[in-house]
Specification:
Distance between the termini: 111 Å
Keywords: 4Fe-4S, Iron, Iron-sulfur, Membrane, Metal-binding, Transmembrane, Transmembrane helix
Shape: globular
Pfam family, one: Fer4_7
Structural class: alpha+beta
GO molecular function, one term: metal ion binding
Protein name: 4Fe-4S dicluster domain-containing protein
Order of helices and strands: HHHHEEHEEEEEHEEHE
Strand content: 5-15%
Number of helices: 7
Number of domains: 1
Radius of gyration: 28 Å
């Protein structure tokens, strides 16, 4: 009979887990589960805007139609770097498939063409922003500009036009009841208040250096900022009409030369803006 193995000992019993340790383990598990759910949720955010069919973003000048633009843009940010008024931003998580894709929030900072030559198009390496679409990409009806837009700041130059073939948005008077002109009111002071950081080029101040709107106060007997500050010639004008009370009034009317830059929306002193720009909207007669 062999001698018993002295190394064959019963495994020691683990001490019972204390109530405090159990609670800590439970909290750690809940935190880990929450973090995992958060990561999964963020990844799914890419689909939420698509399902919600949110309104399209206003893209920079020369942008292809939305589907083609999203397919062509490599999110390099070159257009952001060259914009002199920092009008171009990059989409965040809530933009879904558009995350990292450039867009313009006209109310916060419009494109006023301070660069003269539309530098964002020149900087784009893929053709997502382009002066002329390739032949295999059709131009949507109403997107094409009837003629080359004349930039007011270049009116005295030998070549005052912008090399844009299509509009990237279209302005409209969305809230006529809030429009100061429609109300027959003037405007005095800073268009968007002392805290607003938006900038714009004022040729009478400096053709090449945009300044803050708050540094350029206005004095108007009848508010017409959307007309006078529009950088494109004949894109918007004041039109007279007779109100329901029989009093003659004025309202801004958007013309076919509107390219969708958003300056009118940015400078509108009404809050929220009476006039807005619809991304990728097209011109319709009548």
């Amino acid at each position: 009979m062999s001698a018993p193995d002295t190394n064959d000992k019963a495994a020691p019993k683990r001490p019972p887990v204390s109530l405090e340790k159990a609670r800590k383990a439970r909290r750690k598990f809940i935190r880990s589960a929450g973090l995992t759910a958060g990561v999964i949720g963020l990844s799914l955010l890419g689909y939420i805007p698509v399902l919600d069919a949110r309104a399209p973003r206003l893209r920079p000048p020369g942008a292809l139609d939305e589907a083609d633009f999203l397919a062509s843009c490599i999110k390099c940010g070159q257009c952001v770097q060259v914009c002199p008024v920092s009008a171009i931003r990059l989409g965040d998580l809530t933009d879904g498939f558009g995350i990292g894709v450039p867009y313009i929030d006209a109310r916060e900072q419009a494109c006023d063409f301070s660069c003269d030559a539309v530098q964002c198009i020149l900087a784009c390496p893929t053709g997502a922003l382009t002066y002329t679409k390739p032949d295999f990409l059709p131009v949507r009806h109403g997107a094409a500009l009837a003629q080359a837009p004349v930039l007011k700041a270049k009116a005295q130059d030998p070549e005052p036009t912008l090399n844009l073939k299509e509009r990237f948005g279209l302005a409209r008077l969305a809230r006529p009841e809030a429009c100061l002109a429609v109300q027959g009111r003037g405007f005095s002071g800073q268009a968007r208040g002392p805290a607003f950081k938006g900038r714009m080029r004022y040729v009478e101040v400096d053709r090449w250096q945009p300044i803050a709107l708050r540094d350029h106060p206005y004095e108007r007997e009848l508010c017409d900022l959307c007309v006078t500050e529009c950088p494109i010639e004949n894109a918007i004008a004041m039109e007279s009409f007779t109100g329901a009370d029989g009093v003659a009034r004025f309202r801004p009317v958007v013309g076919e030369q509107c390219v969708g830059c958003g300056v009118c929306e940015m400078v509108c002193p009404a809050e929220p803006a009476a006039i807005v720009v619809d991304a990728q909207a097209v011109w319709k007669e009548g």
